Description:
The protein is of the alpha+beta class. Helices cover 50% and strands 7% of the residues. It folds into two domains: 296 residues, 2-methylcitrate dehydratase PrpD; 125 residues, CATH 3.30.1330.120. It has a four-stranded mixed sheet with strand order 5-4-6-7. A two-stranded antiparallel sheet has the order 2-3. The longest helix has 20 residues. It is globular, with a radius of gyration of 22 Å.
Amino acid sequence: MTANLPPPGRALAEIYSDWLSGLRLSVLPEQLRQVASLDLIDAAGLCIAARNEPYMAQIVSGWDSEGPCTALGHARGLDAAGAAVANGIAIHGEDFDDTLEGAPIRVGAMTIPAALAAAQRCGLSGERAFLGVVAGLETVCRLNHIAPGAIHKAGFHPVGVIGALGAAAAAGVTLGLDARQQARAFGLAGSMASGILEYLSEGAWTKRLHPGWAAQSGLRAAILARTEFFAPRTVLDGPHGFFHAFAPTATPDFTHLTHRLGADWYAERIAFKPYACGTMIHPYIDCMIRLAATGITADEISAITCPTGEGLVHRLWEPLAAKHNPPSGYAAKFSMPFCMAVGFFDGDAGLSQFTDARAADPKVLQLASKISYVIDPENEYPRNYSGHIRVETTNGRRIALDQPHMRGGVREPLSEGDIRAKAIANCRHGGWPEDRAAQLIDWAADLSRQPDLSGLAAFAI
């Protein structure tokens, strides 16, 4: 835990907070503004896509504090923390939200709700909220590079733990905290961070909870920091700090938090998902869609072996028997065999492919049962997400297909038109007509020019 520590007397959170407190819209490069705008559009559509799901009804009705803030797609007004929770859960709920290449984590689901709730609650401008969104996105991306993979290895969900710190940055910059207050917000958020991986055992909904809980934790931390509540400035790099607790096997590279601040924007590497399932599965789905395009039938397939990175196995491949027969549509999103099989038959892996009924489809499950993996020590994960299938047919033919990268990432990004179309389709899935969806998307795209966030209330139902 001694690698790349800040100079004596200056804690890492203080150094980073100095930079955050001076962040201005005028210094943001156009590419970063575009990424943040696209993330807002994507997030807005995802909130509406999830609005009729049972878990959202339970969260919105079960939250015990009403208030003036908006959970998109829901009539009940909530307090700021409640809106942050609800919108964070909705964005991530169908596993269709953004990701980060090179050090995988969701980014917008924890940070966008925190910034929006802070601005709406306090009557702040859209420019303040947009700047907060950018700050949150950049903070999550940088923090997740410090000890990539080690938080998962320790049994924690980075979305929940790093997300709380990212949300503290988003809310803190939105609220205009000074450097001292922002450092205290990080110190507070470090003790509010949470989220374990046991959802993997049953496909439980607690995974959906993690980004929303992180959003409200960071928001509460930023609000409390304004009172000068005493919190550790050494939250990141101290002997009992964040990475010591959540990534105990790692030697953290803290330079990622301060390297070329304002010059190298990690958030520009955010990727947008074309499929509503685990990110690292996407290139394998693309391979299966190309396999189906050859005209081969499922009955002609004897076996499919997938060279894969070791880091994918625990979450997406094992236990293999359970992944061959996922217990629900939600669990199916994290089953490599199921996602590949449904992609083969449907040419897609969108929201309609992950219903409970589809997860029990015998035709899909039969093909899934033929899919297995071998660990490829040369696989580039997590630096790059690639897909590889080796097919054996019943007549002895062998077919090899490879997808060198994730579509939607930096090597093959989705266009603004693609993401707007995705958001429209997601709003349609949530029961909204296209004209209403377009109004929400335009509002999200123009957030930085909104005089305040009173317009959010128009999208409550």
